[in-house]
Specification:
The structure is a single chain. The protein is of the alpha/beta class. The chain is built from six helices and six strands, in the order H-H-E-E-H-E-H-H-E-H-E-E. The protein has one domain: 2-Layer Sandwich (60s Ribosomal Protein L30, Chain: A), CATH 3.30.1330.60.
Length: 243
């Protein structure tokens, strides 16, 4: 690679990481705190008072898909009602129940898969050729890592959602985001993830990263959400990609 281009690419990567950290620490703080307050109200109204709402992942990063901890004395219908009430809050990415006892082992596995993928994509992104659904060969190893992290969750539904920034034609952006999500789906199938558990969707620029300008390149991303039993929405992996 031309040294000048390499320097530019490195500077861009550093800027992307800095932007993600800044956004998480500043714009994300108030947003998540507001979600926590709304989630607590919804939890109590559904009969889940006493269930802990954790809006941080194992790495200490604030997240829009909270863990619901406890509830081991609640019956199954109440647990589902609490989960559905919290998941229905606008801005919540998805929910997962976890311990301390009585929680199903597969719920912990689902949470682990979600956090593993988040960790893998925290500073890297699946890249594509410009304005194309062709995956950059440099992302092959990254896809290997994502597939490996998702294997313990085979049997769950794995949602793959493509996003673009707000530049360009909205309809074309939706088509491009779906084509990219489909491309990732096919790559995961080729790596041993069963096709019947993978769902791909494209939303174009309709759901920018909270706190970012809709036209910011950081909105170009692929999101993964591992879904078990509660109704959830895709959870963003806030990393940028070309296109």
């Amino acid at each position: 690679m031309n040294p000048k281009r390499a320097a530019i690419a490195l500077a861009g990567a550093i800027a992307s990481v800095a932007l993600a950290i800044y956004g998480e620490r500043h714009a994300g703080r108030d947003f998540v705190e507001d979600l926590k307050a709304k989630a607590a109200t919804a939890r109590d109204a559904a009969g889940g008072k006493g269930v802990t709402l954790r809006f941080e992942n194992e790495f200490g990063w604030r997240t829009r898909h909270p863990q619901l901890i406890g509830g081991d004395k609640l019956d199954a219908d109440t647990r589902r009602k609490v989960a559905a009430s919290v998941a229905a809050i606008p801005g919540i990415g998805g929910i997962t129940w976890r311990g301390p006892k009585g929680a199903r082992a597969e719920e912990d596995a689902t949470l682990h898969c979600q956090e593993e993928v988040e960790g893998i994509l925290a500073t890297r992104t699946i890249r594509f050729s410009e304005a194309s659904a062709r995956i950059d060969p440099a992302s092959e190893k990254l896809l290997d890592e994502v597939a490996y992290a998702l294997r313990p969750c085979v049997g769950s539904i794995i949602a793959i959602t493509g996003h673009t920034d707000g530049n360009g034609n909205p309809e074309a952006n939706v088509a491009l985001s779906l084509a990219r999500a489909d491309a990732v789906r096919y790559e995961l199938i080729g790596r041993g993830i069963p096709a019947d558990g993978l769902r791909s969707t494209g939303v174009g620029s309709a759901k920018p990263v909270p706190g970012l300008d809709p036209k910011d390149p950081a909105n170009r991303r692929i999101e993964f959400s591992v879904i078990l039993s509660a109704p959830v929405n895709p959870t963003p992996i806030d990393t940028p990609g070309p296109g």
